[in-house]
């Protein structure tokens, strides 16, 4: 059995599924892809909002490696990986509390 297993036959539907597959060691990445995958898990917004070229530069890998990660995960395209990360960010932000507001003093009675 090969040390590298891709997700082509078990495409993750959500970012959480992807994190779980990696945590359970159901997927093993080639070294440079692992660098990108680790950064993606730590900073999904990087994938969601940046180009493959920008991600590649930040991860010190080639743009091709970033794009191949999508295929390796069974997602097919970098656009699909961006969408997966963006959905996760949207869902995560729905659970956040509203921004803190400074309490206002009660109105003063004049008169």
Automatic annotation (TrEMBL):
InterPro entries: Homeodomain-like_sf, HTH_RpiR, WH-like_DNA-bd_sf. Residues 16-92 form the HTH rpiR-type domain. This is HTH rpiR-type domain-containing protein. The lineage of its organism: Bacteria, Pseudomonadati, Pseudomonadota, Alphaproteobacteria, Hyphomicrobiales.
